[in-house]
Amino acid sequence: MKRLLSLVAIIAVILLVVHLDRKASAAAARPLDLEGSLLNVKIPDYVESEMVDYTGMTISFNPEAHQANWVAWELTAEEAQGEEPRNGSFQQDTRVKGCPSPADYRHSGYDRGHLAPAGDMKWSPEAMRESFMMTNISPQAHTLNAGAWKKLEEKCRQWARRDSVLYIVCGPVLTDEVKERIGPTGVIVPQRFFKVVLAPYANPPRGIGFIMPNGAVEGGMQRAVVSIDDVEAVTGFDFFSALPDSIETIVESRADFNGWNRPR
DNA sequence: CGGCATTGTAAA
DNA sequence: TTTACAATGCCG
């Protein structure tokens, strides 16, 4: 009996230490050691891709579509409260084959829409500048860019502050039929955009997906909610595959917007 | 409704 | 680079 009691006590101490450690520093030991791998997305072999790493984001760039296949980044609670002002100019990343110049978008009728938002890069001047690289830009209708897309970006920053850490991946849907291209370079104008969001350290872990038309979203972001499985079906990509299967299955099957908007 | 913030475009 | 303008959405 005494041995049992001491065993229980030891376990309790271990659990307490782990708990305190988690609270002590979000940047240090996390229950899942996945920081790097969660920023990778599996895409089909036939999809062209050049990987580009920046300070605040990782990009799979498609030289034929002249924009990203996907952009992934981690957003911590601390980062979401950065103070760096929005400044930067759209710039071609000359290191990347197929990257358009800002001029390709001029008078096109479309915004140079950030994929990873400048608003998520306020924790670092470097990350802020790099967010204006054309590798991180897609042609977006202004109604989307300044509408539901922007609202979703703001919502994600709220969620990050509450849930400690978010992993976010977004991009154009490039599996749709190509109906329009802009500029001398021929940048494809996507008809839809996707975004997937994971809160791996929430209890329980949560995931959600969005697919929005390249235009006004009637009814707001709620109307664009889908499961991550749905986004995978549309894009052909595989998100967050580094998660343990038991967690990935649950997290990627839900499309529960209300579950993301409870206080805690 | 007007004021404000954010995300942009365009001209000089 | 600086300046002006525009669309969206929130807030009072």
Features:
alpha+beta; two-stranded antiparallel ribbon; 6 helices; 264 residues; 7-stranded antiparallel β-sheet; DNA-binding; 22% strand
Number of helices: 6
Order of helices and strands: HEEEEHEHHEEEEEEHH
The residue-averaged pLDDT reads 88
Outline type: globular
Q: What class, by secondary structure content?
A: alpha+beta
Proportion in helices: 25-40%
Q: Ends: how far apart?
A: 39 Å
Radius of gyration: 20 Å
Low-confidence stretches: 1-5, 7-29
Main β-sheet, spatial strand arrangement: 1-2-3-6-9-10-11
As a percent range, the share of strand residues is 15-25%
Give the beta-strand count.
Answer: 11
The major pleated sheet works out as: 7 strands, antiparallel
Could you describe the 3D structure shown?
The strands form three sheets. The chain has a seven-stranded antiparallel sheet, sandwiched between helices. It has a two-stranded antiparallel ribbon with strand order 4-5. With 264 residues, the chain is of the alpha+beta class. Strand 1 and strand 2 form a beta hairpin. It starts with a helix and ends in an 11-residue tail after the last helix. It contains six helices and eleven strands. The structure holds a DNA duplex (12 and 12 nucleotides).
